[in-house]
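Give me the 3D structure for Glycine zipper 2TM domain-containing protein.
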Amino acid sequence: MNASSGSILGAARCGSRSIVAAALVASMAVLAGCAGGSNSASVYGAGQAQREQVVRYGVVESVRPVTIDRGQTGVGTAGGAIVGGVAGNSIGGGRGQIITSVLGAIAGGIAGQAAERGLSKSNGLEITVKFDNGEVRSIVQEADETFYAGDRVRVLSGTGVTRVTHR
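Predicted structure for Glycine zipper 2TM domain-containing protein (167 residues):
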């Protein structure tokens, strides 16, 4: 093996390490987008278990579909930029390689941001309930149960979380 073939193999190893690192970052970005807490009436966090909750009963006055947006962390943009930059770096040589790296990073960042934006939104319901005592409240939660005006429901409140469920 001569010196030039050794440097080619070394560059190939370095390139494959970069691709593996970029893939790991992209995977973390996807997982971070999915890691937000749940707004479902059926999901309890560990801190909510074994806690007393106030139970009130009432009737659904109205139901309105809403979008729950958990916001963006920037992980999608950063992960996409890294993956795009690494992909662009594998194209061309010299100045062309620098340009394709920059363009790849920009395109990857935009794509990563769009992916994170899509993953951070879920369908929800704004449920307006008239309680037996006459009080009226509106609660927003994930649309994992179907509610209609006139449904008799129970509302559980405690630990900063309120949820509507069927009786």
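The first helix runs from residue 3 to 34. Let me know if you want a second pass.
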